[in-house]
């Protein structure tokens, strides 16, 4: 027999789990460029389930999360998206990565309102992603 206490505990657990699901598409624009093109391109791609995009000065830094069965091709997906975005934004230095570390660090940069060291942090992230381990 299920007691009221067990039902309440299950409801609390379900509420906690549903509250932990973040909004997966985040775009932050500190430039005069139109970010809607990138947003539309990334949201249309059915292989991508999460994006953190940061437009700053002459840089476009994007971290993507791909769907479960697409993760085996995540580098190719990132290269494909990067190529399309370079065509859309020829004036910007575009960097796209499917690495989860880049995604989380880009999210942190978006949430942080410190624009002073932003360019330096972007360069650090790009060099971190280009390192081969």
Structure explained in plain terms:
- It is a single chain.
- Strands 1-2-3-4 form a four-stranded mixed beta sheet, with helices on both faces.
- The protein starts with a helix and ends with a helix.
- α3 links the parallel β3 and β4.
- It is built from five helices and four strands, in the order αβαββαβαα.
- The longest helix has 16 residues.
- It is α/β, with parallel strands linked by helices.
- α2 packs antiparallel against α3 and α4 runs antiparallel to α5.
- The model has no long low-confidence stretch (mean pLDDT 86).
List keywords for this structure.
single chain; 133 residues; alpha/beta; four-stranded mixed beta sheet; 5 helices; 4 strands; 20% strand
Helix content: 40-55%
Q: State Rg.
A: 18 Å
The major pleated sheet works out as: 4 strands, mixed
By DSSP, the count of extended strands is 4
Please give the count of helices: 5
- Quickly give the structural class: alpha/beta
Beta-strand residue fraction: 15-25%
Shape: elongated
Mean pLDDT: 86
User: What distance separates the N and C termini?
Assistant: 54 Å
What is the element string, with H for helices and E for strands? HEHEEHEHH
The residue ranges in which pLDDT falls below 50 over 5 or more consecutive positions are: none
Strand order of the largest sheet: 1-2-3-4
Characterize this entry briefly:
With 133 residues, this protein is an alpha/beta fold.
SSE layout and pairing:
Layout: H1 4-19, E1 25-29, H2 36-44, E2 48-56, E3 59-66, H3 74-88, E4 93-97, H4 100-111, H5 118-130
Parallel strand pairs: 1-2, 3-4
Antiparallel strand pairs: 2-3
């Amino acid at each position: 027999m299920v007691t009221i206490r067990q039902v309440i505990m299950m409801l609390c657990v379900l509420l906690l789990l549903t509250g932990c699901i973040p909004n997966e598409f985040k775009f932050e624009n500190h430039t005069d460029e139109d970010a809607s093109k990138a947003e539309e391109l990334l949201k249309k791609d059915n292989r991508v389930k999460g994006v953190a995009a940061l437009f700053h000065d002459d840089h476009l830094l994007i971290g993507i999360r791909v769907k479960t069965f697409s993760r085996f091709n995540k580098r190719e997906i990132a290269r494909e998206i990067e190529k399309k975005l370079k065509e859309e934004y020829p004036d910007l230095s575009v960097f796209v990565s499917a690495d989860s570390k880049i995604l989380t660090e880009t999210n942190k940069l978006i949430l942080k309102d410190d624009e002073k060291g932003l360019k330096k942090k972007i360069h650090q992230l790009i060099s971190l992603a280009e390192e081969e381990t």
